[in-house]
Amino acid sequence: MASLAATRYSQALFELGVDEKKLDIFKSNLVDIDRVIVENKDLAKVLKHPKVDKDERKRLLDEIFKGIDPLVMNFLKLLVDRNRFQSIHDIKRYFTRLYNEYNGIEVAYIYSATKLSNEDLDAIVKMLETKRQKKIEYETRIDASLIAGIRIKVADEVLDNTIENQLNRMKDKVAKKVL
C-alpha cells in the first residue's frame, strides 16, 4: 500500500498529466525511472539518501534521465527538495493504477509452469478482453510448482486451470459421490 504522501504526489502528477495531455509520456517516464533505480541499487541509495547534497542529487537526475519530459524532471527534483524521493517506487505504482483506471485497463497476472508462446498469450488476452470488456495488459510469471496449466489473476478474480486445481475438483466430485 502506498503511503499517503506517495498517493498525493501520484495524484498531483496524474492530474498534471491529464491537464497537459501527457499521461502516456508521464507513465512511460515513471516506468523507465523506476526500472533504472531498481536495477541500480547504488544509484538508488545516493538519490534517496538525505545526507547527500540536494543539488548533487538533482545534478545526477539531470545526467541520468536526460530524455524525460521536463515536467517529470521538475517533479523528481521536487521529490528531492522535499525528501520524498524514497517514495518513487510507490508513486510509480499508484500513478500506474490511476492511469489504468482512467484508460479502462486491467492487469492480468498469468502464472504458468513453463514459458507460454506469444500465440497462447495473445489468445488468453483476447479471451480476457472479451470477457471483461476492458483492455488487458499482462505480466507473466513462471511457477514450476504448477506442473501444468495456467492460473490467471485479474482484479479480484482467479481463473485456475492448473493440474492441481483439476485434480482437486475431481477429488471433490468423487468424495461427494461416495458420501
TrEMBL record:
It comes from Breznakia pachnodae. Gene3D superfamilies: N-terminal domain of the delta subunit of the F1F0-ATP synthase. F(1)F(0) ATP synthase produces ATP from ADP in the presence of a proton or sodium gradient. F-type ATPases consist of two structural domains, F(1) containing the extramembraneous catalytic core and F(0) containing the membrane proton channel, linked together by a central stalk and a peripheral stalk. During catalysis, ATP synthesis in the catalytic domain of F(1) is coupled via a rotary mechanism of the central stalk subunits to proton translocation. It holds the Pfam family OSCP. It is found in: Cell membrane; Membrane. Belongs to the ATPase delta chain family. It is a peripheral membrane protein. This is ATP synthase subunit delta. The keyword Membrane applies. The keyword tRNA processing does not apply. InterPro entries: ATP_synth_OSCP/delta_N_sf, ATPase_OSCP/dsu. It comes from the Bacteria. Keywords: ATP synthesis, Cell membrane, CF(1), Hydrogen ion transport, Ion transport, Membrane, Transport.
